[in-house]
Amino acid sequence: MEKKRLGVYFGTFAPFHKGHQQQIYKCAALNDQVLLVVSGYTNDRGDKIGLPLSQRYQYLQEAFADEADINVAMLDETDLPPMPQGWDAWFTRLFGLLKKYQSQEITFYVGEPEYVTELGARFPQDTRTYKVEMADRQDIKISATEIRENPLLHWNEINPVFRRHFTKIIGIIGGRKSGKSTLVRRLARSFNNAPFAEKIEQAITSAGNQGIVFIDNTLSPDMDLVLLIPSDNDAALLKKIAEQGLTEKVVRLDDEETIRDM
């Protein structure tokens, strides 16, 4: 089927949430294809929380991997002049992303009136039809700013792919027969049945991830906290912890605080 209508929806998506998703699906319903443009620059609001533009682009590609008619593109603004001087360069870069599309009707969905004026003033005089529409903000019950300030409070509003960034990863490590597996299981169940596993990816992508996961007997630089159960193997474990750059994140548990796995 010929795809005549293209909807272009852009934003910083730091993070991407349910309100964004609803608007994109509405855009998809009104068009044959959607181009989802994630924009940003070095040290932007996403970058400041450890979500740089490249990471947001990767996550959005993953989020829409099974949507053939929703494509994701990245618009890096790092080297562009600041607004309002940067409108021409920004528009040129945006339109460069449209070259591969043959659509004759292109609609830009924007959230600010300024974009309506600036985009409309720069549309090329060619055979295509261009228009700008204000996105209906009533769909968005939460803001990315609110999520950044308190991600756990707004956990269910965050897109599942982006949740991994805000997940607190707790590692439990100890020697043989130290009780670590029992402790992991009981801690996880005490924290609203949080996921627990030996592999981080398995835990953070679990449907039960509500912002905290527990990892059994595995170390990773991504961990936020490491609980060390004392054992005869402490020297070797502390060496591994140091190699992962986790020394400052270790809490050493006293024997009385652990339940041994007999």
From TrEMBL:
The answer on whether this UniProt entry bears the keyword Nucleotidyltransferase reads yes
Location of the Cytidyltransferase-like domain: 8-149
Entry keyword annotation includes Nucleotidyltransferase: yes
Keyword list (alphabetical) reads: Nucleotidyltransferase, Transferase
According to the UniProt entry, its GO molecular function terms are: nucleotidyltransferase activity
The coiled-coil segments of this chain are: none
The record ties this protein, via PANTHER family, to: NADR_TTD14 AAA DOMAIN-CONTAINING PROTEIN (PTHR37512:SF1), TRIFUNCTIONAL NAD BIOSYNTHESIS/REGULATOR PROTEIN NADR (PTHR37512)
Xref: NCBIfam families: cyt_tran_rel
Q: What is this protein called?
A: Adenylyltransferase/cytidyltransferase family protein
Source organism: Lactococcus formosensis
User: Which lineage do the record's taxonomy fields give for this organism?
Assistant: Bacteria, Bacillati, Bacillota, Bacilli, Lactobacillales
